[in-house]
Amino acid sequence: MGELSLMIDGLGIPESTRWRDGKVWLCNWGAGEVLAVTADGERELIAQLTPQTLPFSIDWLPDGRLLTVDGPRRLLLGLEADGTLAPVADLSSLGEGRANELVVDGAGRAYVNGGAGSVALVTPDGSAETVAGGLKFPNGMALIDQEHTLIVADSYVQALIAYEVSEDGSLSDGRVWAELEHAPDGICADDDGAVWVATVPGQRCIRVREGGEVLHAVPVDRGCFACMLGGDDGRTLFIAAAQWRGMDAFAKEGPGLTGQLLAAPRQPAPHAGRP
């Protein structure tokens, strides 16, 4: 596997890494920016939220429309042709807490988690309903097994939780897919059925199989908030990392500028699933 290389530096807290149209996309928390980054490190501002928006996450509808979660307002927003963000759905069904992560399936249904430890399903008509609950701190999500399984990273229980996805998008049979040593954050899947997990306290990304066996690890010198497989062959792991001093320091001093987008090429298997 290839050595880590630095793509861009000086971010706040980079999150929600995605690969699309030959670019790495991410959310820059603290600046309210949705960025697209080329292989040579050139960045483009795609959408602008208020800097106080935290958390927020991105994914796309099948027609190519960008969606983003506005966590504090519990809204799912869509990027319009004129560059503005317009409400798509009210996520109040998630409860009083902030909405967090987002993943969209092939039918255009969006799963959004957060709130009181729940997952909501937003259908293409904009209606939203809670389809899973009982999570402690739901974080990154991925659809695997031809979208028959939704994996949710539960940071507080240090585990990946799997749900069976019904034809109508509803979830059932929540079970522990893998127990982990450190709290998981963003995740993505590969074509061998393994899941890559970014962890902030563990300062690494690990590749695990169902049951929890760790197959590979990419250590980083700071917390890892998200990861995504991409590149021309789907085997480069793009890592969003930053120094993390705790929520109190974040609230008082802001995110700082230690955020980085890193690339680790030649991973064992290419990207699979969604996002």
Structure, explained:
The protein contains one helix and 25 strands. It has 275 residues and is mainly beta. It is globular, with a radius of gyration of 17 Å. It has one domain (5-272): TolB, C-terminal domain (Neuraminidase), CATH 2.120.10.30. The protein has one helix at 247-253, and strands at 5-11, 13-20, 23-29, 33-37, 43-48, 58-60, 66-70, 75-79, 85-90, 99-104, 110-114, 118-122, 128-132, 138-144, 149-154, 159-165, 171-179, 187-190, 195-199, 204-208, 214-219, 223-230, 236-242, 259-264, 271-272. Strands 21-20-19-18-25 form a five-stranded antiparallel sheet, with no helix packed on it. A four-stranded antiparallel sheet has the order 1-24-23-22, with no helix packed on it.
Short description:
With 275 residues, this protein is mostly beta strands. Helix content is 3%, strand content 53%.
Strand order of the largest sheet: 21-20-19-18-25
Describe the oligomeric state of these chains in a short phrase: single chain
Unreliable spans = none
Task: Choose one word for the global shape.
Answer: globular
**Any idea what the radius of gyration is?**
17 Å
CATH architecture: 6 Propeller
Count of the separate structural domains: 1
Structural class: mainly beta
Q: Strand-and-helix sequence, N→C?
A: EEEEEEEEEEEEEEEEEEEEEEEHEE
Largest sheet: 5 strands, antiparallel
**Tally the helices: what do you get?**
1
Task: Please name the CATH topology.
Answer: Neuraminidase
Helix percentage: under 10%
Q: Roughly what fraction of the amino acids lie in strands?
A: over 45%
CATH superfamily: TolB, C-terminal domain
